[in-house]
Amino acid sequence: MVKKSRNFWESLGFAGDGILYSLRTQRNMRIHGLFTLGVLLAALYFHISTTELLILLLTILMVVTLEMINTAVETVVDMYTEEYLLLAKVAKNVAAGAVLLASFGAVIIGAIIFGPKVWALF
Ligand SMILES: Nc1ncnc2c1ncn2[C@@H]1O[C@H](COP(=O)(O)OP(=O)(O)OP(=O)(O)O)[C@@H](O)[C@H]1O
């Protein structure tokens, strides 16, 4: 029988399990983690403003959150079928496309914030 969460803390635990599962099984999540570390170190080094830091944090959260939703979509599709289905392909491609869009956006935002600061070093 399916286990239902009984209280807030139990729900929080299930959500935490979801984050750990994504980190353990998804190579892209670990890559996002490395990027996040690099961005935070660069933020410290360049003494970016609070506004810039907030924009970077929101951008990182957007990419990581979409990556997790992508993982959830992939898992549901794989649970539903192992056959080749056009709708399964559409669902996975759209979810992957959302991650790609967000990642492009993150690269552009990173370039706008850090580009001039790196340029000024030379
Ligand atoms: N059941 C299916 N029916 C049709 N096409 C599928 C199916 N499963 C996967 N695909 C196609 O193969 C692609 C890769 O699917 P897969 O499940 O391997 O995800 P992935 O790209 O490995 O994701 P990630 O790297 O984020 O784990 C999908 O984007 C989709 O185009």
Automatic annotation (TrEMBL):
The chain crosses the membrane at residues 31-48, 54-73, 94-114. It is a multi-pass membrane protein. It is found in: Cell membrane. Mn(2+), Zn(2+), Cd(2+) and Co(2+) support activity to lesser extents. Keywords: ATP-binding, Cell membrane, Kinase, Lipid biosynthesis, Lipid metabolism, Magnesium, Membrane, Metal-binding, Nucleotide-binding, Phospholipid biosynthesis, Phospholipid metabolism, Transferase, Transmembrane, Transmembrane helix. It comes from the Bacteria. ATP binds at residue 74. The active site is at 67 (proton acceptor). Its cofactor is Mg(2+). A divalent metal cation binds at residue 74. Substrate binds at residue 67. InterPro entries: DAGK, DAGK_sf, UDPK. One of its GO terms (molecular function) is kinase activity. GO terms for cellular component: plasma membrane. GO terms for biological process: phospholipid biosynthetic process. The keyword Ribonucleoprotein does not apply. PANTHER family: DIACYLGLYCEROL KINASE. Belongs to the bacterial diacylglycerol kinase family. This is Diacylglycerol kinase. It comes from Formimonas warabiya. The lineage of its organism: Bacteria, Bacillati, Bacillota, Clostridia, Eubacteriales.
